[in-house]
Design brief:
Strand content: 25-35%
CATH topology: YaeB-like fold
Order of helices and strands: EHHEEEE
CATH architecture: 2-Layer Sandwich
CATH class: Alpha Beta
Structural class: alpha+beta
Helix content: 25-40%
Amino acid sequence: MSQPSPPWTVRTGPQATQILADMGKLDPDLHVGLLRYLRALALEVGAAVAAGRPPAGVRLSDGRYSVDVRREPVIVYYTVHPDEREVRVPDLIWLRT
């Protein structure tokens, strides 16, 4: 019996990490919701890659993907790294009001 594949993970770059830290201080509920969203995004991207489908979002000319977080003022930019089973989030935009 073979071992199950390890789950896909999310890694954030310095800019995204700083925005998430600020969000945690100023809007803890959004922070927790966005962390859950990123985890779900990694699982969704992994399933898409396994099925030979494109990942969620719009592919940009530089190879990143852009996805709007539904009902939240956040846009996530990410790259897909199948060999590491990882989604990397170098940047995200938080449209604070």
